[in-house]
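Changelog note: in this version the structure field was regenerated for every chain. One regenerated record is shown below for reference.
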Amino acid sequence: MTRSGHRARLPHWFRLAHAKLNFLGPIGEGSPVDAPSAKIVHGERLDRVLAGEPRVPDSENSFLEETVMRPVLTSAVIVAAWATIAPAEESSLPLFNGKDLSGWTSVQDTARGNEASPWSVADGVLRCSGRPVVYLKTERVFADYVLTLQWRWPAGTAGGNNGVLVHATTPRTLGIWPKSIEVQLHKGNAGDLWVIGTDLDVPDEAARKTDRRYRNLTDGSEKPIGEWNRMEITCKGNTIRVKVNGELVNEATNVSVTRGAIGLQSEGSPIEFRDIVLKPLKTEHH
């Protein structure tokens, strides 16, 4: 159902609620919307348009709304007219652009001099030769997120050792490696957790922990050499959950670090990465 007979005017702020749409955004004062000319998107329409002037913001990015119900408008009216609206849900953040190492810093062992970098980018793939032993780290620090990435051992190789570092902070805590949690990519052991100057707990710890290593829960989760694997690492508060190719392989609680950079190791064997994406998790503040 749309309004008819005259041009509708919407106030400064409005909120949309329709299926998965959930927006909050500004519009110009007295901006006209020609409701009769609107088309319904996918045969659907907005249940409501809530309108009202905002109160004083309770934080930089948060507003308490005093809403007044208005007659129904189609979603097409709003989508077509106001392209500047941002979704309320946190959006995914690609950490690797498929072109270069923008957003990353290579951490070298300065004691060994100016060594050639093991990192290169081609065809949307981040390639690591495995030598020298160094790591890439994000220039930004993160907490509370789901990190997904794909990795593979290049066809014709034997696989080897590598890992993803989360919550990386203090440099050179163990050799070149920073204080962090290593999520293992070692061939046949993907999803093991290794602590580097940190601590955590896992179920059945007496049987699964050896020195700094916390063994994963499964065997056979990885794909053959030459095929892409997918890892999902969820860091929420002081917990970490790891999935390999959709299968839960490890879970830790009481993690002693909860924020830091994300790192990719170069640890002796050629490996390739792609589709490295971080999705922030919403956290409740009291």
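Spot check on this record: The chain has two domains: 8-87, 93-280. Helices lie at 75-81, 205-208.
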